[in-house]
Design goal:
- The chain is 27% helix and 24% strand.
- The chain contains 14 helices and 23 strands.
- The strands form 5 sheets. Strands 5, 6, 7, 8, 9, 10, 11, 14 and 17 form a 9-stranded antiparallel sheet that branches. It has a 5-stranded mixed sheet with strand order 19-20-21-23-22, with helices on both faces.
- Helix 5 packs parallel to helix 10 (363-382).
Length: 526
């Protein structure tokens, strides 16, 4: 899911960035690849989820719930009411049927997202990425020497393997494996069962050996098997297809509850082949520690709360779903691969982190908004005329994109629409509305006012066919349907507009200053 657990996190459908840009996050091979670290925030990253939870509680951002609450539907109802009211993160200390506490809504605000990623503003991360892509290239010997400490820091961001890890304090294999011991939720009444909603799924390509981390919801079939809900465009699914072609099983390790930055990295729209753990190291400003799994040839974050190890067999499918998804509707039954567990390991005092998705806004909204803000600078580098973008939570992050542009020539808005439809996960955006640079795309009232005032429907709306989100239940076929672009910019004569475009109503600065001066004396109590 990621956002429905992102395979579906809303966020997984956020701003996609081409490989040639984000590949710069990998360790550089030449001295000339430097980055300006002067903007690096001094806040410390969290090494483990417990530290993040403790900090949230210290700041009054977390509420402990001691009452017994059932993971079947009841946790969803409490968490849903809380997130929609802007409430705190929640720690259910006594979930029915399990000794492990459930942490939920940990990322459900802009402030908590920034804290999770160790910044004061989410935009700081985008600025750091931009520094990597546009490095200051030194010209002289002295400047090159001065860069060496920066290069050393960058080179040390890759993950490191340790021999022992807290996530393996308890090891369960064979008959001891029992997913029923975990407080796994059934989120909505018509769900097909209980679902792991915040899993980080680790796979390795049988052909290239490259690692992928994705977030794909997992329906519990029994105490030792689950579904593996990955869609064809996802990295894990690509590795499975490779394994099927070779007639081989694919080993899988699932980390539940790594550190906050690594959890987020698993949801980020990174290009194929870019290791999410390098991105996590970049976010944390220090490497992620990994440990080799007990029963499969994979490594997982050493500070995971739980690790599920196992494999999927080629050509084995089982019906998965329905599932109450981030669209606010159920995604229906489909056949997906079956994950067979060979081991469960966990910390002695593990906390089970979860999320729920459904009618927005929910926790995934803030994960998605973080991606929107973090990757906007890179989107501007690909489509430089973009001034800002808004992916409304109500649109599930793939149904609607509102884009403000610096319009310079006839047809410019349509050029931007098609450029966005050509970018990775943006290809599934159902509706793109392009407005002028002076429109605040984060203000729905202003956006509706200006967009509706500026369009002639027959002239300014275009339709095309292409890929749409797999979870779009309204599309004519699974993953294929129509998309619409709306040019809501001011029209130029070359675009067939022969009339004079009117000016927007604005009061003069002098009058505004005069009324500001006497405002309090008017006693309007507004």
């Amino acid at each position: 899911m990621l956002v429905a657990a992102v395979s579906r996190l809303p966020n997984a459908n956020i701003v996609p960035i081409p490989r040639h840009l984000l590949i710069c996050l990998a360790p550089p091979s030449r001295v000339e690849m430097a980055m300006d670290l002067s903007r690096v925030n001094a806040m410390n990253a969290f090494d483990k989820l417990e530290d993040f939870i403790a900090e949230l509680e210290k700041r009054g951002e977390l509420k402990r719930i001691s009452a017994e609450i059932d993971p079947v539907l009841e946790i969803t109802e409490v968490a849903d009411r809380s997130v929609k009211a802007g409430g705190p993160a929640l720690l259910f200390e006594n979930p029915t049927g399990s000794r492990f506490p459930v942490a939920i809504n940990l990322f459900a605000s802009q402030e908590r997202m920034a804290l999770a990623l160790g910044v004061e503003r989410l935009e700081e991360i985008g600025e750091r990425i931009t520094d990597l892509i546009n490095p200051k290239v030194p010209s002289g010997f002295i400047e090159k020497l001065a860069m060496l400490p920066k290069l050393k820091e960058l080179l040390e961001l890759g993950p490191k393997v340790v021999k022992r890890a807290p996530c393996q304090e308890v090891v369960l294999q064979g008959e001891d494996i029992d997913l029923g011991a975990l407080p796994i939720q059934k989120c909505w009444p018509d769900d097909g069962g209980r679902f792991v909603t915040l899993p980080m799924v680790f796979t390795r390509s049988p052909e290239s050996g490259k690692r992928n981390i994705g977030m794909y919801r997992m329906q519990i079939f029994d105490e030792r098997t689950t579904g593996m809900h990955w869609h064809p465009p996802k990295g894990g699914a690509a590795h499975y297809i490779e394994a099927e072609r070779r007639g081989e099983r694919l080993e899988i390790a699932v980390s539940i509850g790594a550190d906050p930055a690594t959890i987020y990295a698993a949801t980020a729209p990174l290009p194929d082949g870019l290791d999410e753990l390098i991105f996590s190291g970049f976010l944390r400003r220090k490497p992620v520690e990994l440990v080799k799994c007990i029963s499969v040839d994979l490594e997982v974050p050493a500070e995971s709360q739980f690790v599920l190890e196992g494999y999927v067999e080629p050509f084995e499918r089982r019906t998965e779903g329905p599932f109450g998804d981030h669209t606010g509707f159920y995604s229906l039954e489909e056949d997906f691969p079956v994950f067979h567990l060979t081991a469960i390991t966990h910390k002695t005092d593990a906390v089970y982190p979860a999320t729920i998705v459904g009618p927005p806004p929910m926790e995934d909204a803030w994960l998605g908004k973080a991606t929107e803000r973090i990757f906007l600078p890179l989107l501007k580098m690909v489509v430089p005329e973009i001034v800002d973008i808004e992916l409304p939570v109500e649109g599930g992050f793939h149904n609607l994109a509102i884009v403000a542009i610096d319009k310079r020539y006839p047809g410019h808005a349509r050029k931007v629409m098609h450029a966005l439809w050509g970018l990775g996960q943006m290809m599934v955006t159902k509706v793109i509305v392009v407005v002028d640079a002076d429109c605040d795309v984060h203000n729905p009232r202003e956006t509706l006012w200006k967009a509706l005032a500026h369009i002639d429907p027959e002239r300014d709306i275009e339709f095309n066919l292409g890929p749409v989100d797999i979870l779009d239940h309204a599309s004519r076929a699974f993953g294929y349907g129509s998309r619409v672009g709306v040019d809501a910019t001011r029209k130029l004569p070359e675009e067939g507009f022969a009339r004079r475009w009117p000016d927007e109503l604005k009061m003069t600065p002098e009058v505004k200053r005069r009324i500001d001066e006497i405002w309090e004396s008017l006693d309007l109590d507004l």
